[in-house]
Here is the input.
Amino acid sequence: MRIDAMILAGLAFCFTCLPGLSRAQTTAGVPHLAKQGNATQLLVDGKPFLILSGELSNNAATALEPMEPIWPKLVSSNLNTVLVGVSWAQFEPEEGKFNYTLVDGVIAKARENRMHIVFLWFGCWKNGTSSYPPYWVKKDYERFPRIQIGEGKTVSISGPVELLSTLSEATRDADARAFAALMAHIKEVDGTQHTVVMMQVENEVGVLRDTRDRSPAANAAFAGPVPAELMNYLQSHRATLIPELRDVWASNGSRKSGTWEQVFGPGKPASLEIPIQTTASLLGPLEHENSWQKLHWASDEIFMAWNYARFLEKVVQSGKAAYNIPMYVNGWLQQPNHAWPGTYPSGGPMPQVHDIWRAGAPDIDILAPDLYLEYFDSVCERFTRNGNPLFIPETSTNAANAIVAFGKYNAIGFSPFGIDGNRPIPPDLAATYSLLSEISPMVLAHQGKDTMTAVRLNQGDSPKHVKLGNYTLTLTYIGRNTHIAPQPKGESVPSQVPSALQAAPEPPLEAAAILISTGPDEYYFAGGGMRIDFAPNTPGPQNVGLGDVQQGNFVDGKWVVTRQIAGDDDAQGEILILRPYTILRVTLYRFP
Ligand code: DGJ
Here is the structure.
């Protein structure tokens, strides 16, 4: 033993002493997060990286062969990353025996297709419930206890809730051991190649059908004091707490200690039944409009958030001890008709309890929204408070949202769900991913600074005004455009195609563009479907001319002009149109 240890120590010494191969250098390219201005970026192989992704449906990667036709589909739609579930049941079919076949197979295929992977650890919880743990866990009720809910459970679904409790060390340790084994294996097979860039830990955790766990263990904890770590966190972060939480704490007297209900107000009585649709009785229409984003029965949701966070912190710590790459948790969102905890998973990483998660799970890097709601921007706003980086692991295929996420909210990644589905990936999304991939070095250089933003415009929207650099830009919707040259200001645009010959109209484009100020009089615009006008916001001549307008592409990061725009293409120098899926470099001048 002693000799082995000496040999190992010697080898380690030689390894670190090899010229040009220090331990620091061997880990330098490992995926990690780094700050740039007020943004956080993902670095892979030492370089910032935008995840242009899609998430596979839950069980798409439970066998390798059926995955074969999926890879070309992803590649041809310009994805650079795919989010792939790993089922605990398949990974550890017998306790302590791990099966790496699927993980290895997926990594190999991703490499063949030059793609990256984010693995989703479907451990104890998936969509609140516990359908992915192995059989040996599911059948052992004694060792791995379930939650209990009150008699006043939400009425959406009846029957028992098959949901592992957060309050079991045995459950936590079993999950953490399996996750650590997964991370150790990923390090072994991918520690130098970095195909795997990030991990999702569990999936949409939280209690369903009631506001909290009401098992005897949970009731005892709920009746006890709020842990000192949480109270200390609230006090030391008082100035920056998320307002929804700060208000709840303040309205209960900003106490420094006490039980959960003393500190955060009353929980829901066990017998009170809440309908799944919150527009019904308990919340009137007006209250519903205004208050659904708040905490309802705050102590219950906060209690659950703390317990999930503490559980997941252990899982993440074990995983990171094996291989330290960025890790996030994703949340099934609270929404207007599902505003009460339990109608969405209570205790998940909702914006109103982000502070609780930060306090309980400091090793989780990102709290991420599964963002299917129509008010995309407002969810992005709420999820980027206090420096939380934006990663959207699940969403729809709306391409304008991708532009807004990266350009306005400094997103790390965007990932429509069910990308392997029967329907083709929409061409709008594929074209937008191609555009984003071209312009990503510039987007990455400007994230976190005040030199970049993004706008979206729908048909019928009034023009938007954006102050950026030395000019205020006015952006007006034009949609897919007609290929007719825009006319000088004041003249109408005649249709050149007789209406009988016109093809059936395409649905109106949702216009969106990333706007980047690259110099005192220079901009890059990427996206399209809008007209852009300029007004100076610095002293000097007030008229603005289009000095040099180039349409082009970034090839290997270098700007290549494909068309010089003047004459008919910019209404004789008077109107700048950004057509869909294009990149323009525009240099302005001013005259009296
Ligand atoms: C959200 C979940 O996180 C996904 O795994 C999947 O179940 C979708 N819902 C289905 O819409």
Remarks:
- The first strand starts at residue 32 and ends at 36.
